[in-house]
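Class, look over these structure tokens:
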Amino acid sequence: MKSNEVLEMALKAISDRHGEDTEAYDMRGISILADYYVITTAGSNRQLHAIANSIVEACHEHEYTDYRIEGTRDSNWLLIDMGDVVINIFTEEARQFYNLEKLWADGKQLEVKED
């Protein structure tokens, strides 16, 4: 899958589980680690894991196996490394604390439609 297709798959999975304030950044030509970075907020630790599970299920449906999850069951932040797309799922408090948006300020913020 192309990186933009992986991005769309992940954004749909996030939307399906009601991720909040989702932002995506196009970092092509800026970051050597990934083409796209995504950040979303979950209302609870339980929702955080539901969003991650939704992304994993979407990967399985599309036979996409190039992903890795960082974080634990008790984490307030999960990172899903999908190769050229990196997804960060936070609780609200953790997102405010880490403020990753500041790291990606040089990237182009993409329009994300939330359902």
Remarks:
- The chain is about 35% helix and 30% strand.
- The CA atoms of residues 43 and 76 lie 11 Å apart.
- Residues 45-61 form the longest helix (17 residues).
